[in-house]
Design a protein that fits this description.
Order of helices and strands: EHEHEHEHEHHEHEEHEHEHEEH
Distance between the termini: 21 Å
Helix content: 25-40%
Largest sheet: 7 strands, parallel
Number of strands: 12
Strand content: 5-15%
Shape: elongated
């Protein structure tokens, strides 16, 4: 059998090969690519004779997999799998596993980096002091005493809720299926939006969550509220958010994710909106997270080879 790692996974290539070898021993031939390609022809060329492929967050669809007759497992080095044609895999008996949990700490860290940057106006302060300015007009607010709404109470949402409580926030939570979490008042989506000073999104991209935060829901929020999206771009209607920032429906937003992976078109509607902090889908990416991810990837493959697959999506 053949294992093909279709792209670097953010760690040293020698270490990556060593981890792969330790995981599979002499049970698989190992091929590691040290660059990332996303076009269909190149992906077919790289994976056409693979039994197992490893990839992170680029599209891997039926157009590629239909040309890979040996394919038995897709190991997604990512939490979400919406970029992989899971229906095709299910129909053709291909196991799909993900790496849930590797980025929990990294994403939660960035959420609060974004929140504090907005609350204390750090980018504006930096710009002002560089041109001889002062704090005039740039005084922000503390998180203590604010109401922090968390939409999606999976592992990342739960960590965000715990950190918000440590800052002295009142924490509201909304989850499709109710969860019992200490110190989190679970409410409807509409109540959370109406009451929260800060709203942070932590839901997967599904048919039900695309457009979850639309013009109508943005209008429910306080005019002083912040929206933070480190989940998936399509969960928020970008044009509606841009309009909400322009007309003062909400005060500010921070966005790490868009409708597609960066690079993002400079003409994207959010980039011309005021009071927006944007990052290039970096929330999941820390040195420690990449190391955790590689461990999970090869543990997934080892367990699959042993007949006891874990982190199975289908």
């Amino acid at each position: 059998m053949k294992l093909v790692i279709l792209e670097p996974l953010g760690i040293d290539m020698a270490a990556l090969r060593a981890m792969a070898q330790e995981a599979v021993g002499d049970r698989m031939e190992i091929v590691c690519y040290d660059d990332r390609v996303e076009d269909t022809a190149s992906l077919i060329e790289r994976s056409h004779d693979a039994d197992v492929v490893v990839l992170s967050n680029f599209k891997y669809g039926a157009d590629v997999m239909s040309q890979c007759p040996n394919l038995k497992m897709v190991c997604v080095a990512f939490t979400g799998v919406d970029h992989v044609d899971v229906d095709y895999c299910r129909a053709h008996g291909i196991t799909v596993c993900n790496c849930a949990g590797y980025s929990t700490v990294a994403v939660a860290d960035l959420v609060f980096g974004m929140v504090i940057s907005l609350a204390r106006r750090i980018p504006q302060c930096d710009a002002a002091v560089r041109i001889g300015g002062t704090k005039n007009g740039l005084v922000g607010f503390e998180l203590e005493g604010k109401t922090f709404g968390v939409i999606g109470l999976g592992a990342i949402g739960q960590r965000v809720a715990r950190i918000a409580r440590a800052f002295g926030c009142t924490v509201l939570g909304y989850n499709r299926s109710p969860r019992t979490l200490e110190g989190v008042e679970q409410v409807s989506l509409e109540e959370l939006l109406r009451r929260s000073d800060i709203v942070s999104l932590h839901v997967p991209q599904t048919a039900e969550t695309i457009g979850l935060i639309d013009r109508q829901h943005l209008a429910m929020m306080k005019k002083t509220a912040f929206l933070i999206n480190t989940a998936r771009g399509p969960v928020v209607d970008s044009q509606a958010l841009a309009d909400a920032l322009r007309d003062g429906t909400i005060a500010a937003a921070a966005v790490d994710v868009f409708e597609k992976e960066p690079p993002i078109d400079p003409a994207h509607p959010l980039f011309s909106a005021p009071n927006l902090l944007a990052t290039p889908h970096v929330a999941f990416a820390s040195q420690q997270a990449f190391e955790k991810r590689a461990v999970i990837v090869f543990d997934n493959i080892r367990k699959w080879l042993d007949g006891a697959p874990q982190n199975v999506i289908c």
